[in-house]
Design a protein that fits this description.
Elongation Factor Tu (Ef-tu), domain 3; elongated; 591 residues; Alpha-Beta Plaits; 34% strand; Rossmann fold; six-stranded antiparallel beta barrel
């Protein structure tokens, strides 16, 4: 175990994690030069297109007689639980900071996670080759953050390979070797799991005590399930079979499980023959925060959508779905996600991998409703809200947020926080140029446009990170949207009373642009219960019924116009308004 080093790379999005991993693989000879390609550990097409890591990826390297196990973690806030489990599997972390951009919100969040896990942090400044790089200034920021000497920070260029060998030496020197008892009952932490349609569920493991052999009878402690170790091995970065994974090592185990819902991230694996008495600490069930309705554009595709979701949940344990029906959109599913990026990725995968054309309704959060009979209900969409007479209080989820921003933009950022019903809690300075704002706000208000607005008012320099805080009782109301007097349940939403009129007005104005004109007048209304709070009318399309007249008495013309008027009146009663799919996207973004 003295020759093993387990570490991960933590950084804000786009600070060079995957590029640094590429250089390490190249330098250690793990990958031949001819097989090398950029972002090698990012396997999915979506990861390459967006330039982000979605699925974490472990890899084993050899350097100067030592075994180095790297876990390349996702950097986005939606996947922070995966990051925290990956940190639990390591003894050290390389903190990568962009020498041009400096410390960002996700950097801070990941540093806190690393400090909680008692990891040895090696600070690194990347992209020193950029013309805009300010290594001296950023080094002082990093030194202030983690309390080290600025001279200790290793300055590298992952793209050009500058000083990456020094970093590898530093990993061997500074990161401690793993602790554990090889003779104790086997305990291994599952830090990720994937589903392979030919082999079954593959667990990514870090063995803390004992060892794991091919053919062992396994026991998963959280769901209390048994499984068989069909195969074991490690990553280089492809799967390389090995008869056992020893104490302190990171590897994989192919099991006979049929769904990754049975093998959740953070669970402890032990052996049936000699089980461990207690599980490794920190396991929690990941709960979705954001919900949206997914409907096929054509009703014929409903079975295909059901099939696609079943296959997708085999690979994504955090995804939840339940059937849902809508008067306008027909049959579909309400899906639960960890955040908006997770929603976007699932939508892209359903459309690309399964060739589905989808209509996605506005994302909402889940609310806790306490009824007059003291019953507590969980409401995932406005359509599920009980009658107003039965509701005593509605509680909405609040988050604890952090924004890092250059101090010259501070006033605009504080105004933005106020505009989303946020409460500023603390204001501190990382250095003379950089401010850190702590605030609390309702989750529903940061879901759609908050990040875009923040980037806009700070010229792209502001960065944002959040954690779930609690449910708080608020004065919330259900806003219904009526098109031609008919309520469209898929457009209903829950919002704060103070924001309801502004929101209702915005939605009907947007719908006026999107809903096509008919031969009769269409009224668009936003209402709270029986009270209409906003209204717009779509004028009827004109038709020149008098065109065929070529003279004669004016009474003939009036007769035709009266006939047309009666026809339009009748049409208004029986006419149906076809709402295009774009109408359901108006709530996603203001613009």
């Amino acid at each position: 175990m003295n020759g093993i080093r387990n570490f991960c790379i933590i950084a804000h999005i786009d600070h060079g994690k995957s590029t640094l991993a590429d250089r390490m693989l190249e330098l250690t000879g793990t990958i031949e030069k001819r097989d090398m390609k950029s972002q090698l550990l990012d396997q999915m097409d979506l990861e390459r297109e967006k330039g982000i890591t979605i699925k974490l990826q472990p890899v084993r390297m050899q350097w100067k007689g030592h075994e180095l196990n790297l876990i390349d973690t996702p950097g986005h806030v939606d996947f922070s639980y995966e990051v925290s489990r990956s940190l639990m599997a390591c003894e050290g972390a390389i903190l990568v900071v962009d020498a041009a951009q400096g410390i960002q919100a996700q950097t801070l969040a990941n540093v806190y996670l690393a400090l909680e896990a008692n990891l040895t942090i090696i600070p690194v400044l990347n992209k020193i080759d950029l013309p805009a790089a300010e290594p001296e200034r950023v080094a002082k920021e990093v030194a202030t953050l983690i309390g080290c000497d600025p001279d200790e920070i290793i300055k590298i260029s992952a793209k050009e390979g500058t000083n990456v060998d020094t970093l590898l030496d530093s990993i061997i020197e500074k990161i401690p070797s793993p602790m554990g008892t090889p003779e104790a009952p086997t305990r291994a932490l599952i830090f990720d799991s994937i589903y392979d349609e030919y082999r079954g569920v593959i667990l990514y493991l870090r063995v803390f005590d004992g060892k794991l052999r091919k053919g062992d009878q396994l026991h998963l402690m959280a769901p209390d399930k048994n499984a068989l170790a069909v195969d074991t091995g490690f990553f280089i970065p492809t799967m390389h079979p090995s008869d056992e994974i020893s104490c302190g090592e990171i590897g994989y185990c192919v099991t006979n499980l049929k769904s990754i819902a049975d093998a959740k991230v953070g669970d402890t694996l032990t052996l049936q023959s000699n089980p461990a008495s207690e599980a490794l600490p920190g396991y929690k069930r990941v709960k979705p925060f954001v919900y949206a309705g997914f409907f096929p554009s054509s009703g014929e595709d409903y079975p295909a959508l059901k099939d696609a979701l079943e296959k997708l949940t085999l690979n994504d344990a955090a995804l939840e779905y339940v059937p849902e029906s809508s008067q306008v959109l027909g049959f579909g599913y309400r899906l639960g996600f960890l955040g908006l990026l997770h929603l976007e990725i699932v939508k892209e995968r359903l459309e690309r991998e399964f060739n589905l054309s989808l209509v996605v309704t506005n994302p909402s959060v889940d609310y806790q409703v306490v009824t007059t009979t003291k019953e507590r209900l969980e409401v995932k969409s406005a359509a599920d809200l009980p009658n107003v007479s039965r509701i005593e209080v509605i509680e909405e989820p609040w988050i604890k947020g952090e924004i890092i921003v250059p101090s010259r933009y501070l006033g605009s950022v504080l105004q933005l926080i106020n505009s989303i019903r946020g409460i500023q809690k603390n204001l501190s300075y990382i250095d003379s140029e950089l401010a850190l704002v702590d605030f609390e706000s309702p989750l529903s208000n940061v879901l759609t446009d908050f990040y875009d607005d923040l980037k806009s008012i700070t010229s792209g320099y502001g960065s944002f990170n959040y954690d779930f805080l609690e449910y708080r009782p608020e004065d919330l109301v259900r806003v219904d949207i009526l098109v031609g007097g008919e309520m469209v349940d898929s457009l209903s939403l829950i919002t704060h009373r103070s924001e309801s009129i502004k929101l209702g007005r915005r939605i009907v104005e947007k719908l006026k642009e999107i809903v096509p004109r008919q031969l009769f007048e269409i009224s668009l209304q936003a209402a709270i219960g029986a009270k209409v709070i906003a209204r717009e009318d779509i004028r009827a399309m004109g038709k020149n019924v008098t065109a065929k007249l070529y003279g004669g008495d004016v009474s003939r013309k009036n007769k035709l116009l009266d006939k047309q008027k009666k026809g339009k009146k009748k049409m208004k009663k029986i006419g149906k308004v076809d709402i295009p799919p774009e109408a359901f996207m108006v709530l996603l973004k203001k613009n």
